[in-house]
Amino acid sequence: MTLAVTADNGGLIDAPSDVAGNTLTNPLVKARSEPGSRKSAIRAMCAHCMGCTDDYQEPGWKGQVRACTATRCPLWNLRPYQ
Strand, helix or coil at 2? Predict the structure, then answer.
């Protein structure tokens, strides 16, 4: 199943989605579809910290996670995209 979502440039793109139509490329949505996955939960928390929401993915958020300087964050050593 695919879902049309708005790209950063304002155009529409098709993104993979689950049965309910939620975009699975969004880490916050994906974490809720995998409630037992620690990896998905950590990725979602880092994405949320970088400004992502259920409906919006901050452009370049993966690079921002990679460059994160919040070394006092309990998830800093576990963050994805290092």
Answer: strand
Residue 38 burial class via C-beta count within 10 angstroms: exposed 0-12, middle 13-18, buried 19 and up? exposed
* The pLDDT of residue 25: 84
Q: Tokens 């793109």 — which residue?
A: 13
Q: Which two tokens stand for residue 60?
A: 């370049």
Alpha-carbon torsion angle 20, 30, 7, 63, nearest 10:
180
The pTM of this model reads 0.69
- The CA distance from 18 to 29, in Å, is 10
Query: Residue 24 — pLDDT band, cuts 50, 70, 90?
Result: low
Given a cut of 70, whether residue 77 has pLDDT beyond it is yes
- Residue 4's nearest CA partner among 21, 26, 27 is 21
Alpha carbon distance 19, 62 (integer Å): 26
